[in-house]
From TrEMBL:
Coiled coil: none annotated. Residues 19-253 form the PPM-type phosphatase domain. It comes from Limnobacter parvus. InterPro entries: PP2C, PPM-type-like_dom_sf, PPM-type_phosphatase-like_dom. It comes from the Bacteria. This is Serine/threonine-protein phosphatase. It holds the Pfam family PP2C_2. Gene3D superfamilies: PPM-type phosphatase domain.
Length: 260
């Protein structure tokens, strides 16, 4: 899906043109448990992606709920305030916990979550994440910032632990955990510039690329309408028949009009 928006940057008084591309592929799994969605709420754009897990149907239910519930929560009170965004995610998590209690077949369901919020008047953007679905901020062909995975493997690397080596997919927090175990991180607010791209993606995509390679691919393919198809196909080729579900959202900042 492609969505073209005119976004106003209040600092320069000129509109900023952006393009949003999104794609989700089942990979070589029996079902696709990823979910993604976007919405315009007045001057605000919100993009959300989730990667579910937890047995048959469980992952799909969790991820779909997370995306839809966060979009609905945000529509009621659009904001970039970190505390308000955190409260929204905790309410989304409460909905998943209730479903776990009501339906025994869903008791193990959980999901990652990442989201971008961009204000069309200021050009300011902020993102949040839980789990190992990532947000990348590319400036031209360079990595400006990205999220750090809430994975056991990342924790071990941060704490210089090497034994035992867990599964790369093992997470220490995700939606579907009790509130005291839920870790949600919100980025500082930054301002979009022409040439920027923000990418939201599940681990089924990013595991096949280094940060620098994904930055170069994004930069080189930014004007190609089949950008996501190319990148997803490369990931599928590299998976050699063992691809996880893979999903992505590319938010391109394409330029500033001097005429306003």
């Amino acid at each position: 899906m492609e969505l073209t928006l005119q976004l106003s940057g209040s600092n320069a008084g000129n509109p900023v043109k952006t393009r949003v591309l999104e794609r989700s592929d089942i990979g070589h799994r029996a079902e696709n448990q990823d979910a993604l969605g976007q919405r315009m709420v007045g001057d605000w754009l919100i993009c959300v992606l989730a990667d579910g897990a937890g047995g048959h149907r469980g992952g799909e239910v969790a991820s779909t709920h997370a995306v839809n519930a966060l979009l609905n929560e945000f529509a009621l009170t659009p904001t970039q305030d970190a505390n308000q965004l955190l409260a929204m995610v905790h309410r989304v998590n409460s909905g998943i916990l209730k479903s776990q209690q009501l339906h025994s077949e869903l008791e193990n369901m959980h999901t990652t979550l990442c989201a971008l919020v961009l204000n069309q008047q200021s050009g300011q953007l902020v993102w949040l994440h839980v789990g190992d679905s990532r947000v990348y901020h590319f400036r031209s062909s360079e990595l400006a910032a990205r999220t750090k995975d809430h994975s056991v493997l990342q924790w071990m690397a941060d704490h210089q632990q090497t034994e035992p080596v867990p599964s790369r997919n093992a997470l220490y927090t995700a939606l579907g955990e009790q509130p005291q175990q839920l870790v949600v991180e919100v980025s500082p607010i930054s301002v979009a510039k022409p040439g920027d791209c923000v990418v939201l993606c599940s681990d089924g995509l990013w595991e096949h690329f280094s940060d620098s390679e994904l930055a170069l691919l994004t930069c080189n393919l930014r004007h190609d309408p089949t950008c996501t198809e190319h990148i997803h196909q490369l990931a599928l080729d590299r998976a050699k028949g063992r691809a996880d579900n893979l999903s992505s959202m590319f938010i391109f900042v394409e330029g500033v009009s001097s005429s306003g």
